[in-house]
């Protein structure tokens, strides 16, 4: 059973992870599909994979029910484990790399309720910061805010140091979406967004296209997908807008790179695409016909569960 | 992990799954007494608030009730989907009564909470269950084999499922089937279970263990499989859970023997059929897989027995257990650490002592330290197998270029006993295209550009145009591609030459006619009058004429004399003045012609000053050729006329400027209609940039199609301009660059990556911050499968690169040494706007290397060695630089105002390093930049080791270079790039180099010799410089040879090249080269193969 599939930065490679404890990397250039690597190291189903920005090399993070986070790295054409983080007490459900501007930082959300932040400090060393009890009975998703000061395209202050504030959003079994902010090297809960009535399954912070609005999409066990927006620079006033109430669990939300389309994947095995119209209403623009007009389709035959 | 705790000795019931928030109802348990021997009973509701980290649960005022309970359930009857508290609490009492409570009222604190109450059973009601298909049906069981089916809509009279079983015995458990709604099972302590079919109204099967030692304490149906159920035994001699399948009801399918003493309660998870909870008198709470018998989890509990256990229907990871020590605990099955919780308790404890400053020491007390429990206790491992509810079955993620990666796992129809089906799991990659029209039009445009069918394209657009304005814009654009464009422009403005001629003819004849008429009448009159004294008549005629100019009547006669005098003296000027004074314009002009050019022009001026008719201005302009004036001052409503005049008369060299001027005026006018017309002027002028600005202003909205509208026009106009005017085809203004980038982004996002690449602005003539292009350009090339071609072509063209492309390139430098390397091929960057950082004179004197980094960031989070940038020891500026090779004697370069920089190794000599500055550091003033205005610090800074051209062009040099990237607001916004040579540093490092293996030495000698030969025969400095660079950069290759890191195929290929060089068949060498590049690992060869190609190409060209 495949649990995640992610393309790398350039869309040339595809990483998948599965309940058979494997992480696989395929070369999908020019519509082909060549298995490059079958990474073994997890002792439980692997939930998510995440590619680091290519400026750091070819790096992939994976997280698993075995409570481990493994960071894999390609060296001279072969993939190897470069770091293993075992600081969680329960299933690690989500991994997400910070915007590359911050360096190599990985956020990991776990069913033990904690969120870990792994920062690479050089020489193979990783520094760990842990937010304990971020979400009671578990964090299901983490997603970083883009490294853009909102509204930078509009205001043009020249020569100033960018006023980056590291932020990420998380969603958990306490039905909450939380926004975390780094202050003086410490992570603090900045906002608690309440709207869902059941587990928040996924959160996705929209990529910034330079507009002054920050946007987060969240989806839940309750079938609802909310779009949260925040217009003010301080990031304090978030308002939810219900995108849609589905009849089944919504497992995953993903923004297109230009942030104007949201892909929503639900428990009914349907993927729908949503787009905001000029009057601010969200409309479903299509059901994805899988593989239709597609560049390539990958068939992973007979992945038996273990 | 324990989440919550309530100190109650009570039966418990979770709110139904639909209910949000989650509540837990507790009703005082019968048959248990606490130390006070109190027999009072209460029904309470608690809220499960997981955002509250404490162990307490928020309690809603309970109600005191007369009877204590044997069983409490919460049914979803009459429950509308979830906002308000609803459903029904059903309690089984000691005296055979069944009471229905309204939980909403309990929560609201209402006094009257009972909906209904029936006293039908004999003996305590120990078993209750709600039918999940018809939630109004409740089954109850009590003593003497009594089973009733209650309809909550008609509570008065219960039904029975059939005849009472014999012998009469207590009914301890009752359960509705989870798949078939009319099937009910009951069980008694004797160990017998009966399955009832309510349609037949009779028991259909009886299940019992042969040894009769089962003492049924629990009964549960399989959530998914209709024929399976489990029975739990309370008997210490047989502490088992039996799994029965009614298809083989003679003996249990499976027996779970995980408890050492009797099982008191069981609960089967509805969310995952592989999770069955059981608690027993061995004080254990186990979670096992009833389908395999494996114990998946043991809940950490105290030593007390639990007599009731329940899964939370809404939150699948949560369960509650009621223990005999008078406590209900809520647990999470997902494990986790309780540290956070305990810390909270400690805080509570210490703050309850008022620890602010009890001793007046001026300092608050530290928090109370409780003795730490051992780690093994605080960390609770989760289930051995992942529960079903966290296994994500489906997902879709967007990736580069509008591709959507989706995967799904078709719901497995798993049957027990059947091995896992061989499922096929698919991952799909789809192209998401949301802007179909946009793409279609973009393709048309590209097709037009490719085929150069501009005229037909424009014509097509004219035909398709909806609005007049649109049509005229396209008509104007089309004209650009036609001969005699100005005439055509005039026609478009409504000035057809033939038409005009016709009109003039008509007018002329008219005038003639009128003139003739007047003349005849005048002459008639004249002749008539002439009968009288001729002189007198003439004088009177004259005076009549004079009357029209009464002022001048008096001087009339004198003027003639004066003019005569002036003429006689040859004083033309005075004569002309006099004529003008006398309004004898024709005379004046004629005299002025005689008086010479100077006088003529002066006279013309005066004439025009005096004459004020409407047409004079035009005549003025025609005569003086001063179109600027007319364009500047004409009434804008008559812009067509002005434009027509310009089109007719203006000289080619000033034509564009005049059109611009007119456009400017139209644009600055408030009238929006005129503003749009300005576009036409810009089209005439061929001013792409202004057109973009004007269009953008006129057409608001950033929609893809409006962008497409603009880009279509721009592309066509640019092509036209390229045809007609000799301008740099790659020159792109800032605004256009921005639009083009946007356009390219859109195309890329829709998957048209190759097209996006062609639209990326190559050069801007104003330095500006174009918006980020999301993807590095080089990788677009990779994707389009033409990396080598694209980039090499660019390199060879030595095209001017825009800062935007520079950014992309430098960014891509981060990823690909190959591209970076190409970038170093003597690119000149077209810059020159105000924001440009004028490079200082290259610092040639060896200065001690300084990395003026005010904020070294020791925790800089980079992997030191990306695969493509391996380097023995990564250098972090700001740290002491231990090795002399890492110092840079050639130049000291300023770091940007922010950021620690990161040096990234590149293949090659250790001295070669790339430093990235990222905006994570703190601000600081830098010696090298502080004397510059802040605005200038944001530009590009390339500090060349060689002379930079005109102070505006930068040379990026190779060998070693350091790029310091800075971003003043965001990553993309700007960067500072310093590039310099490490030549001086090389000698020190050469000492440490290993020798090239002897068998490969020939490679070096041959290549070097070839370069030398080329250098000797090359004539232009450009080529020489290229070759020089190549020579240096082949060091990469030599280093690889020294390290012996190259693969044998590459080595042998290189030797083949050498052979071909020896025979001077360079073409063959190039072929081998291509072969190597295409078959080898990109990162392995990227540092030197392109150089080799340059050398071979040059050698071939020079024929050395």
Write the layout of secondary structure elements.
The complex is a heterodimer of chains A (306) and B (1104).
Chain A: E1 2-7, E2 13-18, E3 22-27, E4 34-40, E5 46-51, E6 59-64, E7 69-75, E8 78-85, E9 92-97, E10 105-110, E11 115-122, E12 125-131, E13 139-144, E14 167-172, E15 176-183, E16 186-194, E17 200-205, E18 214-220, E19 224-230, E20 238-245, E21 250-255, E22 261-266, E23 271-276, E24 282-287, E25 296-300
Antiparallel strand pairs in A: 1-2, 2-3, 3-4, 5-6, 6-7, 7-8, 9-10, 10-11, 11-12, 13-14, 14-15, 15-16, 17-18, 18-19, 19-20, 21-22, 22-23, 23-24
Chain B: E1 2-6, E2 10-14, E3 23-28, E4 41-47, E5 58-65, E6 69-75, E7 88-93, E8 97-101, H1 103-108, E9 114-119, E10 127-130, E11 137-141, E12 147-151, E13 154-159, E14 173-176, E15 183-187, E16 193-197, E17 202-207, E18 216-221, E19 228-233, E20 241-245, E21 254-256, E22 263-268, E23 276-280, E24 285-288, E25 295-299, E26 306-311, E27 318-323, E28 327-332, E29 336-337, H2 339-352, H3 375-378, E30 379-380, E31 394-399, E32 403-408, E33 425-431, H4 436-451, H5 454-464, H6 468-479, H7 485-492, H8 497-529, H9 534-547, H10 556-568, H11 572-581, H12 585-594, H13 597-610, H14 616-624, H15 627-633, H16 639-649, H17 652-668, H18 672-685, H19 688-698, H20 704-724, E34 731-732, H21 734-749, H22 753-759, E35 763-764, H23 777-784, H24 787-797, H25 803-815, H26 817-823, E36 898-905, E37 913-923, H27 986-990, H28 1001-1017, H29 1021-1043, H30 1048-1062, H31 1066-1079, H32 1082-1085, H33 1089-1102
Parallel strand pairs in B: 34-35
Antiparallel strand pairs in B: 1-28, 2-3, 3-4, 4-5, 6-7, 7-8, 8-9, 10-11, 11-12, 12-13, 14-15, 15-16, 16-17, 18-19, 19-20, 20-21, 22-23, 23-24, 24-25, 26-27, 27-28, 29-30, 31-32, 32-33, 36-37
Helix pairs in contact in B: 4-20, 5-6, 6-7, 6-18, 7-16, 10-11, 11-12, 11-13, 12-13, 13-14, 15-17, 16-17, 17-18, 18-19, 19-20, 19-21, 20-21, 21-22, 22-23, 23-24, 25-26, 28-29, 28-30, 28-33, 29-33, 30-31, 31-33
């Amino acid at each position: 059973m495949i649990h995640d599939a992610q393309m790398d930065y350039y869309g040339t490679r595809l990483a998948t992870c599965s309940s058979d404890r494997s992480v696989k990397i395929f070369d999908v250039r020019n519509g082909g599909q060549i298995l490059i690597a079958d990474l073994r190291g997890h002792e439980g189903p692997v939930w998510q994979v995440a590619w680091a920005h290519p400026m750091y090399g070819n790096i992939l993070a994976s997280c698993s029910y075995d409570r481990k986070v493994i960071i894999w790295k390609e060296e001279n054409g072969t993939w190897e484990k470069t770091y293993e983080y075992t600081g969680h007490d329960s299933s690690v459900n989500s991994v997400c790399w910070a915007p590359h501007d911050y360096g190599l930082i990985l956020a990991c959300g776990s069913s033990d309720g904690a969120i870990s932040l792994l920062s690479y400090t050089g020489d193979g060393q990783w520094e760990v910061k842990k937010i304990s009890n971020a979400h009671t009975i578990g964090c299901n998703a983490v997603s970083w805010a883009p490294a853009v000061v909102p509204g930078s395209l509009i205001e043009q202050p020249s020569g100033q140091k960018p006023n980056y504030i590291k932020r990420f959003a998380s969603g958990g079994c306490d039905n909450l979406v939380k926004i975390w902010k780094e202050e003086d090297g410490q992570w603090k809960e900045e906002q608690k967004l309440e709207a869902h009535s059941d587990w928040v399954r996924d959160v996705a912070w929209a990529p910034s296209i330079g507009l002054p609005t920050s946007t987060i999409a969240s989806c839940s066990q309750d079938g609802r997908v909310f779009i949260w927006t925040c217009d003010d620079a301080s990031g304090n006033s978030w308002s939810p807008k219900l995108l849609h109430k589905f009849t089944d669990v919504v497992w995953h939300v993903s923004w297109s790179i230009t942030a104007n389309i949201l892909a929503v994947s639900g428990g009914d095995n349907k993927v729908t695409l949503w787009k905001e119209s000029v009057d601010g209403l969200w409309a479903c623009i299509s059901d994805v016909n899988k593989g239709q007009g597609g560049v390539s389709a990958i068939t992973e035959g007979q992945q038996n569960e273990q | 992990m324990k989440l919550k705790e309530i100190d109650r000795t009570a039966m418990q019931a979770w709110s139904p799954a639909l209910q949000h928030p989650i509540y837990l109802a507790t009703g005082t348990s019968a048959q248990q007494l606490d130390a006070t021997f109190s027999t009072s009973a209460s029904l309470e509701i608690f809220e499960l608030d997981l955002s509250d980290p404490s162990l307490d649960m928020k309690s809603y005022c309970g109600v005191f009730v007369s009877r204590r309970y044997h069983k409490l359930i919460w049914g979803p009857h009459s429950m509308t989907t979830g906002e308000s508290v609803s459903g029904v609490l059903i309690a089984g009492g000691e005296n055979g009564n069944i009471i229905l409570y309204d939980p909403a009222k309990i929560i609201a604190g209402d006094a009257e909470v009972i909906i209904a109450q029936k006293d039908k059973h004999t003996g305590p009601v120990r078993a209750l269950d709600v039918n999940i298909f018809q939630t109004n049906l409740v089954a109850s069981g009590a003593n003497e084999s009594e089973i009733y089916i209650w309809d909550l809509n008609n509570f008065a009279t219960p039904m029975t499922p059939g005849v009472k079983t014999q012998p009469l015995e207590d009914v301890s458990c009752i359960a509705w089937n989870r798949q078939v709604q009319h099937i009910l099972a009951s069980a008694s302590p004797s160990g017998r279970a009966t399955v009832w079919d309510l349609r037949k109204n009779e028991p259909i099967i009886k299940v019992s263990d042969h040894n009769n030692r089962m003492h049924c304490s629990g009964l549960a149906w399989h959530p998914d499989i209709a024929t399976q159920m489990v029975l739990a035994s309370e008997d210490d001699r047989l502490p088992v859970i039996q799994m029965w399948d009614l298809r083989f009801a003679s003996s249990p399918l499976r027996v779970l023997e995980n408890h050492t003493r009797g099982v008191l309660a069981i609960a089967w998870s509805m969310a995952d059929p592989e999770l069955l909870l059981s608690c027993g008198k061995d004080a254990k709470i186990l979670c096992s897989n009833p389908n395999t018998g494996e114990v998946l989890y043991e809940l950490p509990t105290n030593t007390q027995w639990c007599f009731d256990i329940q899964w939370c229907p809404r939150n699948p990871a949560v369960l509650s257990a009621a223990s005999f020590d008078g406590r209900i605990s809520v647990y999470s099955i997902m494990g986790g650490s309780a540290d956070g919780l305990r810390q909270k308790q400690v805080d509570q404890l210490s703050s309850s002592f008022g620890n602010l400053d009890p001793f007046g020491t001026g300092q608050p007390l530290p928090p109370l330290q409780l003795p730490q429990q051992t780690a093994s206790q605080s960390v609770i491992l989760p289930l051995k197998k992942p529960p079903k509810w966290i296994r994500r079955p489906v997902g879709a993620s967007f990736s580069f270029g509008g591709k959507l990666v989706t995967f799904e796992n078709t719901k497995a129809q798993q049957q027990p006993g059947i091995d896992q089906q061989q499922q096929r799991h698919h991952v799909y990659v789809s192209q998401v295209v949301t802007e179909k029209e946009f793409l279609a039009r973009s393709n048309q445009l590209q097709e037009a550009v490719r085929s150069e069918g501009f005229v037909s394209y424009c014509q097509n657009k004219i035909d398709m145009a909806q609005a007049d304005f649109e049509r005229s814009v396209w008509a104007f654009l089309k004209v650009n591609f036609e001969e005699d464009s100005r005439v055509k422009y005039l026609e478009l403005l409504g000035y057809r030459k033939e038409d005009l001629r016709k009109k003039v003819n008509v007018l002329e004849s008219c005038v003639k006619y009128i003139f003739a008429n007047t003349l005849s009448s005048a002459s008639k009159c004249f002749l008539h009058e002439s009968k009288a004294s001729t002189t007198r008549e003439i004088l009177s005629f004259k005076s009549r004429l004079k009357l029209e100019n009464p002022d001048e009547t008096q001087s009339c006669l004198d003027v003639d004399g004066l003019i005569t005098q002036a003429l006689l003296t040859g004083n033309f000027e005075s004569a002309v003045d006099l004529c003008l004074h006398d309004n004898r314009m024709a005379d004046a002009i004629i005299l002025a012609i005689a008086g010479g050019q100077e006088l003529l022009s002066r006279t013309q001026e005066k004439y025009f000053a005096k004459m004020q008719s409407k047409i004079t201005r035009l005549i003025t302009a025609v005569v003086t050729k001063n179109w600027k004036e007319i364009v500047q001052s004409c009434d804008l409503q008559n812009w067509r006329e002005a434009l027509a005049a310009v089109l007719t008369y203006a000289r080619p060299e000033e034509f564009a400027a005049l059109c611009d001027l007119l456009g400017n005026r139209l644009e600055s006018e408030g009238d929006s209609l005129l503003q749009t017309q300005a576009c036409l002027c810009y089209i005439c002028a061929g001013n792409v940039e202004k057109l973009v600005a004007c269009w953008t202003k006129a057409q608001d909205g950033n929609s893809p199609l409006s962008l497409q509208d603009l880009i279509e026009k721009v592309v066509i106009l640019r092509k036209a301009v390229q045809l007609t005017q000799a301008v740099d085809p790659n020159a792109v203004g800032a605004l256009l660059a921005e639009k083009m980038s946007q356009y390219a982004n859109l195309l890329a996002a829709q998957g048209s990556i190759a097209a996006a690449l062609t639209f990326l602005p190559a050069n801007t003539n104003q330095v500006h911050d174009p918006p980020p292009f999301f993807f590095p350009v080089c990788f677009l090339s990779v994707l389009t499968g033409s990396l080598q071609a694209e980039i090499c072509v660019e390199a060879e063209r030595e095209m001017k690169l825009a800062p935007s492309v520079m950014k992309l390139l430098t960014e891509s430098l981060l990823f690909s040494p190959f591209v970076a390397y190409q970038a170093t091929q003597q690119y000149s960057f077209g810059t020159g706007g105000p924001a440009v950082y004028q490079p200082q004179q290259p610092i040639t004197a060896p200065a001690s290397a300084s990395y003026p980094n005010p904020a070294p960031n020791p925790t800089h989070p980079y992997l030191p060695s990306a695969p493509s940038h391996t380097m023995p020891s990564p250098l972090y500026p700001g740290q002491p630089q231990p090795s002399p090779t890492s110092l840079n004697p050639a130049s000291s370069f300023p770091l940007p105002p922010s950021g620690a920089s990161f040096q990234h190794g590149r293949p090659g000599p250790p001295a070669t390093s790339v430093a990235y500055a990222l905006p994570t550091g703190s601000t600081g003033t830098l010696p090298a930049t502080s004397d510059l205005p802040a605005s200038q610090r944001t530009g590009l800074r390339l500090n060349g080791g060689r002379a930079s051209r005109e102070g505006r062009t930068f040379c990026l040099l190779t060998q070693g270079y350091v790029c310091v990237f800075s971003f003043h607001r965001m990553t993309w916004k700007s960067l500072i790039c310093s590039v310099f040579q490490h030549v001086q540093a090389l000698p020190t490092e050469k000492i440490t180099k290993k020798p090239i293996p002897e068998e490969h030495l020939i490679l070096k000698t041959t290549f070097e010799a070839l370069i030398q030969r080329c250098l000797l025969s090359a004539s232009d400095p450009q080529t020489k410089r290229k070759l020089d660079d190549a020579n240096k950069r082949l060091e990469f290759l030599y280093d690889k040879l020294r390290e012996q890191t190259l693969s044998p195929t590459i080595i042998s290929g290189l030797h083949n090249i050498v052979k071909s060089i020896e025979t001077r068949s360079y073409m063959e060498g190039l072929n081998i080269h291509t072969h190597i590049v295409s078959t080898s690992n990109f990162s392995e060869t990227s540092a030197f193969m392109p150089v080799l190609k340059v050398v071979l190409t040059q050698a071939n060209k020079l024929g050395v």
